[in-house]
Design goal:
55% helix; mainly alpha; flat
């Protein structure tokens, strides 16, 4: 005996709408990102070739010796934390 019923068809309209919606969302995101990049590039002031560049004074409070001291303290803290015994000693 052969089956004479028509197979169920799947309506592809919702899938196409979802793909179209995803594509439009990606397109809007790309457009906004390009506008943001363009605006950032446009806001940059042109460099004056007659003025020499100045060093960054952000860490002016610390001397090189102070920086090495901070690194030594941080290293000692990391080693101390790693050497602390665990409370689950029977599992080690």
């Amino acid at each position: 005996m052969t089956n004479t019923n028509n197979p169920a068809t799947v309506d592809s309209a919702p899938r196409e709408r979802a793909l179209r919606s995803k594509r439009s969302t990606i397109g809007v995101a790309v457009l906004l990102a390009s506008i943001a990049c363009g605006a950032t590039y446009a806001m940059q002031a042109p460099a004056d070739p007659t003025v020499p560049p100045q060093p960054d004074k952000g860490l002016n409070l610390y001397s090189p010796v102070g920086g090495y001291a901070l690194m030594a303290i941080a290293t000692a803290a990391v080693i101390a934390v790693n050497l602390m015994p665990a409370k689950r000693g029977h599992q080690d």
